[in-house]
TrEMBL record:
The lineage of its organism: Bacteria, Pseudomonadati, Bacteroidota, Bacteroidia, Bacteroidales. This is Alpha-galactosidase. Residues 417-486 form the Alpha galactosidase C-terminal domain. Its EC number is 3.2.1.22. GO terms for cellular component: membrane. GO terms for biological process: carbohydrate metabolic process. It comes from Coprobacter secundus subsp. similis. Belongs to the glycosyl hydrolase 27 family. Keywords: Disulfide bond, Glycosidase, Hydrolase, Signal. It catalyses: Hydrolysis of terminal, non-reducing alpha-D-galactose residues in alpha-D-galactosides, including galactose oligosaccharides, galactomannans and galactolipids. Residues 1-23 form the signal peptide. GO terms for molecular function: alpha-galactosidase activity; calcium ion binding. The keyword Secreted does not apply.
Amino acid sequence: MKIRKLKCIITLFIISIGMLDFASAKNVFEGKPYINPPYVTAIYPNTDFVFAIPTSGERPMTWTVSGLPEGLSYNDSVGIIRGKVMESGEYIVHITAQNLKGKDSNTLTIKVGNDLALTPVMGWNSWNTFGRNINEQLILEVADAMVSSGMRDLGYNYVCIDDFWQEEKRGEDGRIKVNKEKFPNGLRHVADYLHERGLHLGVYSDASDKTCGGVCGSYGYEESDAKDMASWGVDLLKYDYCGAPSDRTTAIKRYTAMSKALKKTNRSIVFSICEWGGREPWLWAKSVGGHYWRTTGDIMDNWTRPEFNGIIDIVALNGRLAEYAGPGGWNDPDMLVVGISGRSENINYGAESYGCTNDEYRTHMSLWCMMASPLLCGNDIRNMSQKTKDILLNPEIIAINQDRLGEQGRIIHRNSQCVVWKKNLSEGIAIAICNLVDSRSTVKLDFDALGIPVRELLRDVWSHKDLKLQKILDLDIAPHGCEVFVVK
């Protein structure tokens, strides 16, 4: 009976016709203001707070903010809140953004206490495109691009420097050394540049003597390295596990040591546990101070290559872990490869062909948002095609990722040709249906059969349209494509 019922939910007819173009997302800097999520954020007491109010709309724009806790102030012409809050508590801040086209108001909840990362981290990481080829100029240009492209105004705010920012050996004093050829002005200069623009700095190290790239790791020097990173203004640490013992007990000890060191710094530093899932970090990472933890090996710029973690292969691993994710602690299926388009042999391990179709990249983005995953772009955001922007800068799909309820979506139906995901939101439900096969699929989506009532709203997230309220949707989905809807 169960099998028969599921077959009634979705009927598929496989046909072979051309690809459809995606609907273009609205330009971030057009129209009246709209205050985007996140609508909740967190900080430790008496630590630096930097928050650029993510706001779409035509510039110039001004912001009015009321209800800020003591210690915080804002710049009304750039919409950046800064300062320190001494007292723990939950503060409701009222924000209004106004331009020549109109205004928008919303609230921001600032939680001052023991938590960070109440919504998944968003930003950019250097590894997937640039690998060891990083330097100060690149990072500052990426920061500028994050602002000028509108990414910051959609919630992307971390700029993360991966492996190879440090020297191979420590100094005579035992301190970790920044590579002066790559970063001649040091990481403090980079952090200050980012913070002035409402962005945050992430860096990388390893729970061993050497990083994956063979430069200086942090094992045995956790406190001094954490202290130095804090003094440079670092806001996030990605902590890898190359060269470390394979057992879980040792991993827990080494990650605990760095977590404790970070908390001693009197700085709010998000802690990314990157041990690739082999020791089941979803069972212990949050308890040792992690804010997100890798559940898989390194992602490839491919739809599928099981031995090397293509997009859909990673989804199969991470998608089953929903019970372990939530505000303050997230499953991490690795960074986004949207828009890399085969231009990084760095992450493809000798694959004969790599790169994805735009439909596959859109599915990638859709499922990372449905899974409440960190959204760390890995493409060169200084040079994005319009199709890449339409995917990464879609405010509606980002809102699903950044929903304050913080629930990771779950699969509610699958067969050999398609899969249906459901993600409960603070207001409504997000539904994603993905075509797993290599040809177009005609799909009949029956909301009643799925147990999802549609009463007030049926919104197509990728076409940016409200649809006629209906119990059954007839869909035509591209090969490896994904459609996403919000229902209320």
